[in-house]
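Following up on my earlier thread - several people asked me to post the actual chain instead of describing it. Fair enough. Here it is, all 165 residues.
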Amino acid sequence: MNCKQVQRRLNAYLDGELPAEMRQTLEAHLDGCSACAHEWAAHQKLRQLLDEPPAATVPEGFARLVRERASRHAVSVRRRATPEVWRAYPIPVRAAAMLALGAGLLVGGLMGNSAALVRTTEQAAATGQAEEDLSLGLVGALAPGSLAEDYLELTGNSEVTENNG
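Reply from S.P.:
Thanks for posting it. Predicted structure:
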């Protein structure tokens, strides 16, 4: 067996996968060849390192330092996420303000829709318009020259705005 053949089979030899006859031939070559014996020693050392990795040494107080740095980072992230104006108020006050804002938007939207519906119902009653045409009364409330009116004209519904305007 030559050096190239031995070096190709060192891993199999290390894992105990070679047949007995080939193992004996390889061992005989390792006994007589210092280059291959050196390569064999490197394979054995690598296997030992992989099987038993050296223990990592951690300096004393390492865990405490990590916790402190993580805590400082979390605080700085929280500060950047909240606008300056809101930081002056406690969290319950902020929550109440957001709730009031949301409720105001909801009520305002509902009132606006109901007012438009009342207007169209009154218009329908005054003009004798049928109930199924009430939705068209909403279009009549559009301001002249608005985007909605332009859209209706483009889609061929300009008579709706003329009839209800």
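The chain has nine helices and no strands. That should answer part of your original question.
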